[in-house]
C-alpha cells in the first residue's frame, strides 16, 4: 500500500488475521438433559418475534398482576418492559418456592476456614430471616419503598438476606463490593443518598479475619463530606454475640443486627406488590465519567431476564447444585448467585474466601463435598488455579455438567485447561459476555445447541441482536477480520433503566454515539453502545477485545482511569496522572500509573510512587494498587490537551506506539519509552509476546472517549 493511502485507513479498519480455533461439541449427555435442546427456540426469539418473545422469560415469574404492554418505547431510550404488570422480586425468589421446596437448600454457605461447618439455609429459613430483617428495616430504620440502602458486605449469607429483605419492601439496595475502601463506599452512599449503611464486623480472606467495620466509619465520614448523613449503621456479626472488630461502636448510630433482630422474632412482612418498572437495585460501576455510575435495574424486566438466562444458559435444573464463584458485590453475583438461581428455586453455593485458601485444591474439594454440578467463574480465578495447582482437579471426585467463564476475555489455552482439567472433558462451557449495565448475558453459545469456540463468547443470546459498527456507524461485516464497536441493536428486559441521578449521561454514554434519529420512538434507531471492541467471525461468533473507553479490567473488576487519576491527584506534588492497563499473566490486566509532577519538583525525592499507590488504595481499594508508577517529565498529549493513554499503554506493554506525529509533543514519547522500558528490563519485568487480541486492545484503549 502506498504511503498516502495508508494514512486514510483508520486503525480499526486494518484487517486483522485472527487464528480460528477449533470447535468443541457439547457432550451428548448434556444435550439429552438440557433445558434448551430444541433448535426451534432460536426461531421463537428471532427478530420477527421481538419483543413478544420475552413473554417466555416473564412467564417464568409469578405476577400479582399481568402486564398489558410488553415493551413501551414512547420515551427512548428509557425503555419500559412489562408495563402494567406488578410483582415482588423477594416473593419470586423465596415465598413462591415454599409450597414445593420449603426444606430444600436455597443457599449453601461455605466459610473460608475449613474448620467451620458449611451452613445450609433452606427456603423456609431464608423466608424467616428475610421477613425478620424486612420488619427491622421497616420499623427500626423507618425505610420505605423507593428509599435507598447501601450495603458494604462480604460473601456471607447475610448479603442475600439483606438484598431480599429490601426487595420485599421495594427498598432499592446498593451493594458496594466488600473489597472497596471505606471512601469508595462513602461516595456511593452519598450518590445514592442512603441513610442506612449495612455492614459486617469482619470476614475471612486468605486465612485472615479482616476488620471490616473500620471501613464503615470511613464511609460515613466520606458521605458526610459529600453532604449526606448516615443515620444508622447496621452491623452484622460474623459470630453473632461476639464482636470481632476493633472499631468502636458509636452509640445511637451503630447497632448489632443480631441484637436488634430479637425484637422482630418471627415477624412477617407482606411483600410489597410493585410495578414492573420499580427499581430493584443500584450497582455502581466505572466508566468514562469521573464519578462511578449507579446503574439502576428494574424489578420485572431484570428478574425476568436473569431467570430466563439462568434457565437456558446456566441450564439450572431443580436437582442441580449450582456454584457461581464470583462476588455478590459485582453484577455477576447479583444476577447469577442470588436473583436468577433463587427465582428458579435452585440451590446456590456462596463461598466466603479466596480460591487458593488454604491450598489450590479448595474449590475442587468444595465441589466434591457439595456435589456441585454447575460451576461459574472468571478467567482470573481460572488462571490462578491453573498456575498454582494445574493437577489438583483430578484428585477430586466431582463432575461438572456445565461451566461458565465471565468478566474478561479468556485466552484459548486457559480455556482448554478449564475444559480438560477442570471440566474433565465432560462439561460444556459458556463464555458469557455482558456488563453491569446489562442485567444478564448478551453473547454466549446456547450450551446444547451451539458448539464452543475457545476465546469467543459466541453469538448474541436469545432475543439479543448484536452488531459491530465502525466509528462512522457503518456495519463491520462478519468475517471481515476488522475490529469495531460492538453494539446491541435492540432493547431487552435486563437493560438498566438509567444512571441514578444522571439521566443525561445515560443517554449520552450509551445511546448518543449511534442514535439515528433522536425524535424517533422506534427502537431500531437507538442501538446500545457497549464500550467494548470486538471482531465478528464468519460463523457469527463474537470475540471481545476489551474496553474502548478508559476502563481497565483488573481481575474482572472495572476501574476507571479517571478514578485512578483523581486518587493520584490527591497527592500534593502531582500535577497530572494517567492510568493504563498492563498485561498480566494472572489478573488479565493490572494498573500502571504515569505521573507528572508540579513545576520545579524533583522526581527523585518524596517517595511519590508509594504515596500514589497508597492514595489509590484509600480512595478505591487494594485491587487498584498500581504495579508500577512512572514519574515522567510530561504526558503525551493531543493538540487539544487530551492525554494519550493509548500511547502510554503501548509503552507499558512494549507494543508499537503507532503514529504519534499528530501529538502536540511527539518528542516526549521516545524519552518516556526509553526510561520506562529500560527500567522495566532492569527490574526483570521482561515483556512477553503480545497476542493479536492484546495488540488490538491497546490500540483501541480510550478510543471512545
Ligand atoms: C468485560 C461483568 C470478554 C467487557 C459481567 C465488559 C468480557 C466488562 C466478558 C464488563 C467475556 C465481560 N469476554 N470480556 N465473557 N464478560 N467482559 O460490568 O470488557 O464488571 O465491558 O460486568 O467486562 O464488566 P462488568
Task: Walk across the major sheet and give the strand order.
Answer: 12-11-8-6-7-14-15-23
Give the CA-based shape. globular
Distance between the first and last residues' Cα: 30 Å
- Assembly type of the chains comes to single chain
Bound molecules: 5'-O-[(S)-ethoxy(hydroxy)phosphoryl]adenosine
Largest sheet: 8 strands, mixed
What is the overall pLDDT average? 94
Give a short overview.
This protein is α/β, with parallel strands linked by helices.
Give your account of this protein's structure:
A hairpin with a 2-residue loop joins β9 and β10. It is built from 22 helices and 30 strands. The protein is globular and about 70 Å long. α20 runs parallel beside α21. The strands form eight sheets. It has an eight-stranded mixed beta sheet, with helices on both faces. The chain starts with a helix and ends in a 5-residue tail after the last helix. By secondary structure, the protein is α/β, with parallel strands linked by helices. It binds 5'-O-[(S)-ethoxy(hydroxy)phosphoryl]adenosine. 5'-O-[(S)-ethoxy(hydroxy)phosphoryl]adenosine binds next to α13, β20, β24 and β25.
Amino acid at each position: 500500500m502506498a504511503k498516502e493511502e495508508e494514512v486514510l485507513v483508520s486503525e480499526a479498519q486494518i484487517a486483522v488475521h485472527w487464528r480460528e480455533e477449533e470447535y468443541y461439541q457439547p457432550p451428548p449427555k448434556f444435550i439429552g438433559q438440557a433445558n434448551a435442546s430444541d433448535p426451534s427456540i432460536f426461531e421463537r426469539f428471532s427478530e420477527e418475534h421481538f419483543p413478544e418473545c420475552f413473554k417466555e422469560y416473564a412467564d417464568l415469574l409469578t405476577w400479582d398482576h399481568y402486564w398489558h404492554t410488553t415493551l413501551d418505547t414512547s420515551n427512548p431510550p428509557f425503555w419500559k418492559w412489562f408495563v402494567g404488570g406488578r410483582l415482588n422480586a423477594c416473593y419470586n425468589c423465596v415465598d413462591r418456592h415454599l409450597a414445593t421446596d420449603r426444606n430444600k437448600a436455597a443457599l449453601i454457605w461455605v466459610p473460608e476456614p475449613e474448620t467451620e461447618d458449611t451452613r445450609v439455609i433452606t427456603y423456609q429459613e431464608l423466608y424467616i430471616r428475610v421477613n425478620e430483617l424486612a420488619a427491622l428495616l421497616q420499623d427500626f430504620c423507618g425505610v420505605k419503598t423507593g428509599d435507598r440502602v447501601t450495603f458494604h458486605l462480604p460473601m456471607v449469607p447475610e448479603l442475600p438476606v439483606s438484598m431480599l429483605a429490601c426487595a420485599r419492601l421495594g427498598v432499592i439496595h446498593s451493594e458496594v463490593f466488600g473489597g472497596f475502601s471505606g471512601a469508595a463506599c462513602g461516595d456511593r452512599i452519598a450518590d445514592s443518598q442512603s441513610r442506612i449503611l449495612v455492614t459486617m464486623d469482619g470476614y475471612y480472606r486468605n486465612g485472615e479475619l479482616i476488620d471490616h467495620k473500620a471501613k464503615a466509619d470511613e464511609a460515613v465520614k466520606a458521605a458526610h463530606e459529600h453532604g449526606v448523613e448516615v443515620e444508622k449503621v447496621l452491623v452484622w456479626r460474623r459470630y453473632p454475640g461476639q464482636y470481632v472488630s476493633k472499631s468502636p461502636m458509636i452509640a445511637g448510630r451503630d447497632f448489632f443486627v443480631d441484637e436488634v433482630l430479637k425484637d422482630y422474632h418471627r415477624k412477617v412482612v407482606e411483600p410489597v406488590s410493585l410495578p414492573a418498572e420499580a427499581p430493584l437495585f443500584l450497582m455502581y460501576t466505572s466508566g468514562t465519567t469521573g464519578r462511578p455510575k449507579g446503574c439502576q435495574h428494574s424489578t420485572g424486566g431484570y428478574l425476568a431476564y436473569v431467570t430466563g438466562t439462568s434457565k437456558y444458559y446456566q441450564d439450572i435444573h431443580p436437582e442441580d447444585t449450582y456454584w457461581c464463584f464470583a462476588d455478590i458485590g459485582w453484577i455477576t453475583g447479583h444476577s447469577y448467585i442470588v436473583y436468577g438461581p433463587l427465582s428458579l428455586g435452585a440451590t446456590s453455593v456462596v463461598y466466603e474466601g479466596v480460591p487458593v485458601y488454604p491450598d489450590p485444591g479448595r474449590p475442587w474439594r468444595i465441589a466434591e463435598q457439595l456435589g456441585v454440578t454447575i460451576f461459574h467463574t472468571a478467567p482470573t480465578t481460572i488462571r490462578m488455579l491453573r498456575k498454582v495447582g494445574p493437577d489438583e482437579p483430578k484428585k477430586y471426585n466431582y463432575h461438572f455438567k456445565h461451566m461458565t467463564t465471565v468478566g474478561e476475555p479468556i485466552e484459548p489455552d486457559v480455556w482448554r485447561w478449564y475444559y480438560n482439567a477442570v471440566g474433565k472433558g465432560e462439561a460444556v462451557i459458556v463464555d458469557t459476555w455482558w456488563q453491569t449495565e446489562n442485567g444478564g448475558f448478551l453473547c454466549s453459545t446456547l450450551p446444547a445447541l451451539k458448539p464452543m469456540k475457545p476465546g469467543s463468547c459466541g453469538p448474541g443470546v436469545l432475543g439479543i441482536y448484536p452488531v459491530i459498527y465502525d466509528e462512522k456507524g457503518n456495519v463491520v461485516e462478519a468475517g471481515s477480520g476488522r475490529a469495531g464497536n460492538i453494539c446491541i441493536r435492540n432493547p431487552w428486559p435486563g437493560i438498566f433503566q438509567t444512571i441514578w441521578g444522571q439521566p443525561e449521561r445515560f443517554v449520552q454514554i450509551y445511546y448518543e454515539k449511534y442514535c439515528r434519529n433522536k425524535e424517533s420512538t422506534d427502537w431500531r434507531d437507538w442501538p446500545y453502545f457497549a464500550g467494548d471492541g470486538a471482531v465478528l467471525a464468519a460463523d457469527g461468533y463474537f470475540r471481545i477485545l476489551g474496553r474502548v473507553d478508559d476502563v481497565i479490567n483488573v481481575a474482572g473488576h472495572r476501574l476507571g482511569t479517571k478514578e485512578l487519576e483523581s486518587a493520584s491527584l490527591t497527592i500534593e506534588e502531582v500535577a497530572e496522572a494517567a492510568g493504563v492497563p498492563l498485561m498480566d499473566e494472572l489478573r488479565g490486566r493490572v494498573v500502571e500509573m504515569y505521573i507528572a509532577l508540579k513545576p520545579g519538583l524533583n522526581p527523585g525525592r518524596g517517595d511519590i510512587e508509594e504515596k500514589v499507590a497508597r492514595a489509590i488504595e484509600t480512595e478505591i481499594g487494594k485491587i487498584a494498587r498500581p504495579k508500577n508508577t512512572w514519574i515522567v517529565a510530561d504526558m503525551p498529549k493531543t493538540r487539544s490537551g487530551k492525554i494519550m493513554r493509548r500511547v502510554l499503554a503501548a509503552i507499558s506493554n512494549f507494543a508499537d506506539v503507532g503514529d504519534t506525529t499528530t501529538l502536540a509533543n511527539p518528542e516526549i514519547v521516545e524519552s518516556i519509552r526509553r526510561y520506562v522500558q529500560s527500567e522495566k528490563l532492569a527490574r526483570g519485568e521482561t515483556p512477553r509476546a503480545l497476542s493479536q487480541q492484546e495488540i488490538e486492545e491497546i490500540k483501541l484503549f480510550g478510543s471512545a472517549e
